Amino acid sequence: MDRLGTSEHWYPxxxxxxxxxxxxxxxxxxxxxxxxxxxxxLMNQDMETxxxxxxxxxxxxxxxSVVLGPQTPQTFAKLKALVPRGVPWRVRMxxxxxxxxxxxxxxxxxxxxxxxxPLRPIWNAIETLTKVEQQEPxxxxxxxxxxxxxxxxxxxxxxxxxxQAFQAWGGGEVTQTFGNPVRAWASTLVASSKGSGPxxxxxxxxxxxxxxxxxxxxxAWEEDGNALFATLDGK
Length: 235
What we know:
Blueprint: H1 38-42, E1 47-50, E2 53-56, E3 59-68, H2 76-82, E4 89-96, H3 99-102, H4 104-113, H5 120-133, E5 140-149, H6 152-168, E6 173-175, H7 181-186, H8 205-211
Antiparallel strand pairs: 1-2, 2-3, 3-5, 3-6, 4-5
């Protein structure tokens, strides 16, 4: 979490790692014989927020969330090619089962009020997913991305370029507005929270897998191979 204040040789201590007992033991408390909880090892810096940006030890961070998935699905390699090389970024994609189950209550409500013209397109979209569910699973997916810079101006510039890349990635749409910017930023960290991003997408499994960073290796040979060939996605 603290890019400037963390050594490249640092690594977290896990519960089964041998450590020197520390602190004071109270009763049957075994805490002095265990490593500190992982959340305190990782999230150990104060944060300063300014709008939807936050600062950790002098490094500014910005977050975006995909609210409308790519309308013409593209590969992850295409997204990577759209982001300029000078922009630091990371992306977290959560893929979960039960898309139609999650939409069940909405579908039941819309079945009674689908005659209202503004709601008809929503009902049609859910009906389309219901038919797709008969052939392949419909999933729940969230996509969160983050970038950083040494100043607010730098992170704003990086967010703009990252937003443009996601918009060009099949015609999707993103947002940089969050009620809780710290929680939104934490959603870009792998395994940092039980929940996922705030904006849920409901793609069929085949389309969701196409968006994930699953690519082939650069060469079919082992390390002792004598021929290397570049792939179309630049590997």
